[in-house]
Amino acid sequence: MSIKRNLILLLSAVLVIACTTSPTGRSQLMLISPKTAIVESEKAYMNTVGALSKENKLVRDSAVNQRVQEITGRLVAVAVKQYPESKNWKWSVAVIDDPKTVNAWAMAGGRMAVYTGLIDQLNLTDAELAQIMGHEIAHALANHTAEQMSVAIATQLGVSAVGIATDASDSTLTAGAIAAQLAVQLPNSRTAESEADRIGIELAARAGYDPQAAVTLWQKMEKVSGNGPPQFLSTHPAPGNRQQTLRQLVPQMRQLQPPSPGPVAPVELAR
Length: 271
Fold this sequence. Notes:
- About 60% of the residues lie in helices and about 10% in strands.
- By secondary structure, it is of the alpha/beta class.
- The chain starts with a helix and ends with a strand.
């Protein structure tokens, strides 16, 4: 009983010590440091980009690449100003040639990707594309990668501790069991997505993009999800609810818009 009790107390102590606060004031679990998440994300990103390059899946159209790079650069310039700790990140974006995939993603340290299917199927304006990329940049700024990695560790430790405490014969989780447990975290994931929306719309507004585009973006997303949600919506709030929340923020965000577009920060284009 002493071993079981000590294990549970140790787990509880770790969880308390590892709590931190997101840019919006939300409590986050951090068993993985943001620095570690950045290091691991860079490895994963380079492997992914390398494979895409070999398969000729990276866009070669200079006009498309320049558009994404410039819009992302304006957002990064604001991000670095608002979040100085991101100044030395290796900001980069991959434009993936996949017309069927409506998706975009971000890793720790400013490693991002956007699929041509998202740009083309939604016929995105520059301001709408800025909302997408602002959202992804927000994930990086809010340390969501480290948070998700931490949730995975906590879930595995927690279930193992319960198994030992109840004399379960097998407290070791398989990869499939871990994945099943993580599915329970969907509401938290949606909280993070809403947080990225809030940070992202502000980044876009400060970069000079009309915040109303956040609403029109999700109107388009709602239409495209008519035959089943695209991958980008798998853990996101419903488009209708999202529109309402973002619409309420538009007047406030418009007050943050500069009289003219701001500078463009350097963002590496994956090749």
